[in-house]
Design goal:
Blueprint lengths: L2 E4 L5 E7 L2 E9 L3 E9 L2 E9 L3 E8 L4 E8 L10 E7 L4 E5 L1
Antiparallel strand pairs: 1-2, 2-3, 3-6, 4-5, 6-7, 7-8, 8-9
Length: 102
Amino acid sequence: MQFQYEQGFDRDFYQTTVDGENFSGQAINAGATSGVGTVFAGGGTGTVFMSSTNGNFVAVLMGDRGSTMRCQMNYADSSGFTSFGGVGLCQHSDGRVIDVTW
C-alpha cells in the first residue's frame, strides 16, 4: 500500500487505498504548543508569536466504503516537514495494524 501526502501549513493531507477502498484525511500536530512572548532588543520591546512542535502527528482517515483508519505519525524532523521521512502506525477499523515508513 502507498500513502500519498500533501504538506500543508498547519496540517498535512493523507490519501491511501486499502483493499480497493480509498481513504483520505488530515494530520494535525499532536504536540504543538504556541504562545505570545515579549522580546527585548535594542532598547525597545516587541511582541512575538512562538510555536514549537515535537513531530508527532495524528490523523483520522475516512474510507469511501465506511471504514476508518487512525494513524499516529512521528516525523523525523520535529518541525513537521514530511520530506525528511518518519515512521507511523495506522489502525484500520477492522482491527488491522499497518506500519508506515517514508
